[in-house]
Amino acid sequence: MTTARAPPGARAVVVGGGTAPAAGRPGPGRDHRRVTRTAAPASSRRGLLLVGTAIVLTGLNLRTAVNSVGPVLQEIQSGLGISSGLTGLVTSLPLICFAVIGFAGPPLAARFRDGHVLAGALLAMAAGLVLRAVAGTFWLFVPGTVLAMAGGALGNVLLPSLVKRWFPARTGLLVGAYGTAMAAGGAVASVSAAPIAQAAGDAGWRWALAVWALPALLAAVPWLAVPRRPGASRTAHTAMPLRSLARSPTAVALAAFFGFQAMQAYIIIGWTAQYLRDSGLDAATAGLLLGVNTVVVVPLNAIVPPLAVRPRLQRPLLVVFVACYVGGWIGLVLAPRTVPWLWMSLLAVGMSTFAMVLAIIGLRARTPETTAALSTVVQGWGYVLAGGGPLLVGVLLGATGSYAGMFTVALAGVAALTATGWVATRERFVDDEVAAREAAGAVREPDAASRPG
Fold first, then answer.
1. CA-to-CA distance for 363 and 371, rounded, in angstroms?
2. Tens-place pLDDT, residues 2-42
3. What single DSSP character describes residue 27?
4. Mapping DSSP to helix (H, G, I), strand (E, B) and coil, where does residue 424 land?
5. CATH number, domain at 261?
């Protein structure tokens, strides 16, 4: 029997039989239920319901601050009086914030209760949404955006570990639940932004951005009532130093895979609505088509994680998603006004790589603590990589006046996503890879010391 090493106050869960897989390679037939993990004593049903509700409500708010920008991007550019290059920065800024602020997740969770960290982040998000909406200049819009992204950044990195900690046997289900909520919130923000801006009259784009402060405030409330995880200790949060994951090829591949899929998503969210408007569609229709994209994502985010936790389905799913990306982008190039709903729907299917990678993060670590570290590294560095995509699109558009650069960046990103995703879907545990590299280094050092000088 294989047991996990448990932190103080927790019990080890026996998972599977036989010998442990060598070098992080699960034996044949092992699935996510047989992954070594640490669990605390059982919690009450009421407590689990409260945590599940808080997770889903947080997911609902993770993309509203981002998706509400694309449909009114032209109005924001005019209202702030900024260039195409700075407009590209507007679309990349959320990714930069997700990367930088996300790295603060594990240290904050180690010092404070997870619920308090997320409640504070959501309150900061609400304040930032209001500040961004009333900003008169670009340089006030920037700090408002940074605050607005706090909830999204910390939610991104902490939710996967919270799911593994509180619901270790229901990872696919809970990732699907908050992923669906995330897509639903993004869809509503995309569809409603342009109508809200039009209904509000002059400078209506400000109302289209500010309205999402209210659901962020509501999502903060249940986190204040969530107790510390029974049996958990603060020291458990520091089980895996972030820098050590650089020794794991799987962690590096996951970070790159996450980055390239996020690059796709934020080019779609930030630029396709404007591209459709410049192709002859009105603002409301372009926003509606972006909404179609995010609506299609909603059920997929519920379906994909339970499928993605099955190792044999991961690479077939990847192939399907890549094919949909290619079809969607080529369709928008060749016929942006002919069945644009089809092209946006195909891109939505491709964007299921996000739900897939969230599920895989939990499968590549043995404990909730390692999951938190892996989630932080994968999403932090992934968003750094992704941030260059939308920014580069804006720079190329300003320099050439053509969207050819957007399609070049997008299709090159699909190729890179395919290669890194293929590596990330290998069955490995990052804990084992790090331990193996550290053990190999420890063996080499005595050998080197024993050689004659």
1. 9
2. 444 444 444 333 333 333 444 444 444 444 444 444 444 44
3. P
4. helix
5. 1.20.1250.20
